[in-house]
Amino acid sequence: MKDTKVSYTDGLGTGSLTGSKKDRPKKEHYFLIAPGVLWMVLFLIIPLAMMVYVSFWTQTTFAVNPTLTTKSWVTFFSTETYVDALFRTGRLWLIVLFLTFVIGYPVALFVGQLVRSETLRTVLLVTCVIPFWTSFLIRVLAWRPMLGKEGAVNILLQKAGLISTPIEVLLFTEVSVVIGLVQIYVVFMVGPIAFMLSRIDHSLLEAARDLGASTWTIFRKIIFPLSLPGVAVGAIFVSVMVLGEFATPAALSGRKVNLLGNIIVTQVGSLKWAFAAVVGVVLTVVMALVISALLRVVNLRKEL
Amino acid sequence: MYHLNGLRWALGCFTALFLVFLYGPFVVMTILSFQQGPEGGPQFPIIEWSTFWYEHVLSIAEPSRVAPLPIGKALARSLTLAFATMVVSTLLGTLSAQAFRRNFKGSGFVFYLIVLGMMVPGVLLGLGMALVSSQFGIDRTWWGTAFVLHVVYTFPFSFLVMLAIFNRFDKSLEEASWMLGVDPVKTFQKVTFPMIFPGILSSMLFAFTLSYDEFPRTLFTGGSEATMPIAIYGTFAVEIHPNLFAFGVLTTLASFVLLTIYGVLMALSVRRSKIKSAGLQEEIA
User: Fold this and answer.
1) What are the structural domains, with CATH classification, of chain A?
2) Terminal CA-to-CA distance of chain B, rounded, Å?
3) By CB distance 3.0 to 4.6 Å, which of A79, A90, A252, B27 could disulfide with A176?
4) Which residue among A54, A145, A265 places its CB closest to the CB of B28?
5) Nearest-CA neighbor of B67 among B244, B215, B230?
6) What ipTM is given for this predicted complex?
7) Which residues on B lie below 8 Å from A128 (Cβ)?
8) Nearest CA to CA, how far is B240 from chain A (Å)?
9) 10-residue mean pLDDT series, chain A (304 residues)
């Protein structure tokens, strides 16, 4: 600490404070960063590495032993149920990602660009966040009385005379899982996009308009490209959460729709550690591919 | 900004519909929490309006066939866990962000190492930790194995918030204080801390909220003593009663109170730091 002070006082002489950086002992940063890095290595990297390692262990009825084998891997890729779950996870992820984007973008556009009053913008954003104060699991459960055969949606639609018999595919199907996932995660798409949109310099848009650009051209050539980092960040959030989901499908599909996450939970429940680890590694690989693709669109460090 | 009224109208209506979609389940949940008890189930129609399920949650209802929610101890555990996570994650986040104020070798790698903590799905991390603890014979507890994973999850959020704060932070104020011969500890107390305080509050809020509602990480690592979300998940398997909805409404109201306090503190601290920095700048000038 003493050194810091001295070097800054020295910096005065040269008239450049930033120039004095080189004289400072460099170790200080490593002390500051060490606890965080250590924590992440111990409790993030090691568990993940352990998962990869255990996926090659031998599974006996109720235990695993560290004799290396690829048996669990073979089982995973040769069993229809599990390969199905892999594709179902991918399919639901794409559907939910698409829907959160299609639903979220117009809302973000309204909040980020078209609302002129700062107060109204804050109020709208806070309104979007309030549902998060209810426990995640209770929010998921609340969809059941919404979607059931005698649920709120069917009652309202019948009273409005839009349908004569209740729609039954709403609950305990993939449809209900998708509806639930979209409602829970769409805000994670709205937030980053609205943030990027609200940062766009309005003089840019006015200049474009003065030069005769139509609203559509302005959107296509200026607004949309500038909002892309927000879309990427939102997509990362939604992807991470949807790919790792198991509670929503379990609660809203009556355990009929199984994603990779559900298989992990079931396998852990029956102490099939090696097999759970295989599913975990598959999920990690899928996740890594998705995130690294999205990170090509956005440089997280620059956007802060 | 001209000729946009039609568009603004259309998008405004869309946003209104969006809010209906967002709040629909919450509204239905609130209505059903006033279902008649203990016979009424968590579905329409409402047999008769009553506050039975609220009394049930608060354990002042008459005993019935519906078991009370196991919330007392679970709630205390969740709050303790969220508090500890909040403190540790804000501390780690502030330290790391402080280090990132200048570029150092390997900073890109460390950045992504930290951010990875919020990008790995909870179920994977929970599984990994469960494997580690079962192989090394570590007991799985909510205050041990689950706690460290909660910090892995919230630390990146704290870090990013603090990084954003430090990026917008006017360094010349700190430097001015150093130049005037104020020692670094005092500078931190009097100049740096008041300016980063809003960031610290946000980081604490993030960490607390995320940890309090954390579920997949805790499921595999929390051991036998359940936290709040695990207790709720436990009731999933059996029959659902409207007491869960009453509990949801009550906790949401509680968060309202907490967030109002946060909002007031935030507004006060922003105003104070503005006055302070204005004063400092005058002194320097």
Assistant:
1) 1-54 (no CATH), 60-303 (1.10.3720.10)
2) 41
3) A252
4) A145
5) B244
6) 0.83
7) 19, 22
8) 9
9) 39 40 60 91 94 90 83 90 93 96 94 85 84 85 85 86 82 89 93 89 89 89 91 92 91 86 90 91 92 84 70
